Amino acid sequence: MNFSSLLKNRSFLDIVKWFLRLLLPLYFATLRIVEINREVFDSKKAHIIYGFWHNRFVPLIHLHRNSGIYIMVSPSRDGDFIAWILERFGFRTIRGSTYKRVIGGTKELLGLLRRGERVAILLDGPRGPRYTVSPGLLKILDKLKVEIMPVTAEYTKYIRFNSWDRFMLPLPFSKVYVCYGEPFLPKDSVELRDRLFELEHFVKSRFLR
User: Peptide bond preceding 170: is omega within 30 degrees of 0, i.e. cis?
Assistant: First the structure.
């Protein structure tokens, strides 16, 4: 039985949520987070989309808790569970997909950005492939003409799950480096992917050698 199937069990889900309420704050308290180029993040707080890979968002939940940032989450059952976690940490969720309902998603994102809200998107979510920017997202960015800020998180110690995204979970008491890149308007998905890879290489070459 996979995790998605377990989420259909109401009793199991209630138990998991109860444990997470107790354990997540304790877990995050053990992480030693170092921010790189935080001034870039602080200088752009409106009309911006933050973009990061699906397998590295865990420390960002803690670091930017209670920020009110909107995050697009899949309308699936798995998405329900992720949305529950995000909302407990003070995020707001957009229940849509970058694969489907592109026009509706564009209108909602445009409305949020016009109000000065901040929006974050998992670039390769919700189903992958890993490190591949979804086609629907590029259509949205092209329509909105809004800059995207690449963000990455790298860890000194972590476990990697055997999931489609090879999800990375930093171990307790490990050091976490969160790096913010300069906002830009990508010409295509390759340029956006490469900016994320450049950030990853920068952190690894400077801090994880």
Answer: no
Which residues constitute the domain of residue 100?
3-207
Cα distance between residue 58 and residue 75, in whole Å:
20
Whole-number pLDDT of residue 1: 46
Distances (CA, A) of 40 to 27, 54, 145, 148, 208: 27, 22, 20, 12, 22
Token pair belonging to 153: 């998180």
- DSSP 3-state of 147: coil
- What DSSP string runs through 186-201? -SSHHHHHHHHHHHHH
Longest Cα separation, the chain: 47
Cβ neighbours of 72 (radius 10 Å) = 23
- Check whether 202 has a pLDDT greater than 70: yes
CA nearest to 151, candidates 96, 76, 82, 71: 71
Q: How many domains does the chain have?
A: 1
pLDDT beyond 70 at 102: no
